[in-house]
Amino acid sequence: MEIQVLALPELVSMIITLVSVFILYLILKKYLHKPVTQFIQKRQDDIEAEIMEAKILKQEAIDLRANYEDGIEKAKLEGQEIIEGSRVRATELEKTMLEEAKKEAAAILERARIEIAREKEKAYEDVKKSAGEMAILIATKIMEKDINLENQNTLIDKFIDEVGTSQWQN
Known about the structure:
The chain is an all-alpha fold. It is built from two helices and no strands. Helix 1 runs antiparallel to helix 2. The radius of gyration is 64 Å and the shape is rod-shaped. The termini are far apart. The model has no long low-confidence stretch (mean pLDDT 84). Pfam families: ATP-synt_B. It is found in: Cell membrane; Endomembrane system.
């Protein structure tokens, strides 16, 4: 067996190979190219749709986050407003209660003044009544005895001592 090494391949075999490759190319192009191209196009469209959906979801998530942050900020501001409103109402309530307490204290003082004036008037009336009674008693004592000026002064002092201790003890 002899092996021959040729620098150029045989022309017939080369033509057969080229024709076979060309026929195989046409067969593959007709039956395989369209389905593979459609599959690749469908897959590419699906991937692009998923990418678009992911972009939309990402934008929605960003919008929701911004809304939540705005809501949190608004809630903080409302909380501060509520606290400030409570402080203002507490201050107003304090002022109102203080004014009411002052009015009540003034009313109590006025009632006390009226009561003191009434008691003073009553004491004055009692003193007048007592003075009238004392004058009658003194006159009675004087009439019972023959009195000179010295006896009269002694009787008046004695009577005031007796009446004064008994009246003020009651």
